[in-house]
Hints:
The protein has helices at about 65, 80-90, 150-155, 185-195, 210-215, 225-230; strands at about 5-10, 10-15, 25, 35, 50-55, 75, 95, 105-110, 110-115, 130-135, 135-140, 160-165, 170, 180, 200, 210, 220, 235, 245. It has about 250 residues and is an alpha/beta fold.
Amino acid sequence: MDSSWALSWAGTTILIDPWLIGSEVDGFSWFNEQWHVTSPVLVDSIGEYQAILISQAYSDHCHQQTLKELQTVPFFATPSASRRLKREMRGREINILPELTSGKWLDQGVLQLAYLNPGRMLDPIYNGIVIRHKDEVVVYFPHGFTLSTNQMKALQAYKTLLLITSFSSFKLPVFLGGISNPGAANALSLVEALNPRKVVHTHDENKHAKGLVTKLAKVAYPDPLQLEASMGGRFVYVQYEPFTVS
C-alpha cells in the first residue's frame, strides 16, 4: 500500500517501509493524519522475509504500530530512521546503511544495501535506497531524488534493473517543508539518467487525510496510462501486490 513493499530477489525477501495497520500521524493528528484508501494486506499473509528496510524516519515509512506486529528480523535503516528505531524498537537488531558513494555495502543474504543522502541539512530530508545483486541494482526513491555527480557515477557502475519512485507532486508552504514529492518531471529525469529495465510508481496513493497539511497542500497525481505511454512500456502499474525481481 502506498509505499510499502515486499521485494523478493535472489532467494531473499525484504520488506520496505511497511505501513499496514491503522493511520499514520506526523507529530500530532491536528497537523497531519492519514489512512490508506484501500485496506492493506494483512500482516499474517505476507509470508517469510529475512529483513525490514526503513528509508525515512517519518511515520508513513517507519510505522511503529506495524513494525511491532512483524516478525523479529533485522532492521536495515538510513541513519535518520535508525535513530527513531532505537527509541521505538528497543532491543532489536538495527543495521545502519552506509552512503552509496562511500563504496561500502551492508550484506543481507546475497543482497547488498546502501542509501543515498540528499545532501540537505534541514528537514524534510528524503533518502534514497539502493539494493544490489552482483552488477544489478534496484533503486528506491519514494520522494523522488536529485542525484549528485558522485552519486550518479556510483550508480552508473551498475545496471538498474528496477526503479521505484514517486510520480506525484505534493507541495506545502516553505515554512511547512516545501516540496515533499517533486512530481513526474523529476521521476522522468531519473528514468533518463538510470535507464532502468522496469519502472514502478510508489507513494502515489491518494490517501484519506485530515489536519493542517491537508488544507494547505497542493497535490497532483499521475495518470498511469500517460506514464506507460511516455516510457515505452517500461512502466508497470502495480496495485497492492509485492514485486518479485527475476
